From TrEMBL:
InterPro entries: Carb_Metab_HTH_regulators (IPR050313), DeoR-like_C (IPR014036), DeoR_HTH (IPR001034), NagB/RpiA_transferase-like (IPR037171), WH-like_DNA-bd_sf (IPR036388), WH_DNA-bd_sf (IPR036390). The keyword Manganese does not apply. Residues 1-37 form the HTH deoR-type domain. It comes from Streptomyces violarus. This is DeoR/GlpR family transcriptional regulator of sugar metabolism. SUPFAM superfamilies: NagB/RpiA/CoA transferase-like (SSF100950), Winged helix' DNA-binding domain (SSF46785). One of its GO terms (molecular function) is DNA-binding transcription factor activity. Keywords: Transcription, Transcription regulation.
């Protein structure tokens, strides 16, 4: 902090204030003595092994929100995959750019499965690009279950990879209701790119109470916070 102050010719208080603002915007993460800039997503296989029980609790609660006959958009990511595992035997239409979700549900004949087109991100098992976005403009879903890399105290939903953001935004536009799936590690989590604000969400499904500042921002925007097993007020 002192080095930055001396190099830029401003006070430590100014540096501290600017770093807070940059962190809120998702452009860096503050650490002791300074800040670091976030890099991209970890490979899907690595993330899939982390906090599995927490993701399953969120997935089970999210699945209970879906009514038979509805159309459901499932985002990329491992929590959406855990949700797909909860949907076997249901009469639903599932739309996804998540190749692992597709593989999980491909043999379930009760589910109408729509795989969006696009360029393949092999390490993260997703489809992205203008083809994916064009497909979404032709579709409408009752629910979107959205993943995230982090949720800022102001309720902004963030992602670590810029290329995924336009697809996520197109999914939001294509959906009647948006439910964010976020375990406690996502508050504040990380991410350099803003996907949407709290006003674009209807529900946040998590596995434990979120921090006071974020909860207040979500409630001010009219977002319901559902903790696995109960509704947070």
């Amino acid at each position: 902090m002192t080095d930055l102050s001396e190099r830029l010719g401003v006070s430590p208080a100014t540096i501290r204030r600017d770093l807070v603002k940059l962190e809120e915007d998702g452009l860096l993460t503050r650490v002791h003595g300074g800040a670091v800039v976030e890099e991209g997503d970890q490979p899907f296989a690595e993330v899939a092994e982390v906090r599995v029980s927490e993701k399953d609790a969120i997935a089970e609660r999210a699945a209970a929100m879906i009514e038979d006959g509805q159309s459901v958009l499932l985002d990329i990511g491992t929590t959406a995959y855990r949700l797909a595992r909860q949907l076997h035997g249901r009469r639903l239409t599932v739309i996804t750019s998540n190749l692992v979700v597709y593989e999980e549900l491909a043999d379930d004949e009760g589910i109408e499965l729509v795989l969006l087109g696009g360029m393949v991100r092999r390490e993260y098992r997703s489809l992205v690009g203008f083809l994916t976005e064009d497909n979404l403009r032709q579709l409408h879903a009752d629910w979107l279950f959205l993943g995230t890399s982090g949720v800022r105290p102001g309720g902004q939903v963030m992602d670590t990879t810029v290329v995924e953001v336009p697809v996520k935004r197109a999914m939001i536009k294509a959906s009647e209701k948006v439910a964010l799936l976020a375990d406690t590690a996502k508050f504040p989590g990380h991410g350099m790119a803003k996907v949407c604000g709290p006003e674009d969400l209807d529900v946040v499904v998590t596995n434990a109470p979120v921090d006071t500042a974020t909860r207040a921002s979500l409630q001010e925007a009219g977002v319901e916070v559902v903790v696995a097993g109960r509704v947070q007020t």
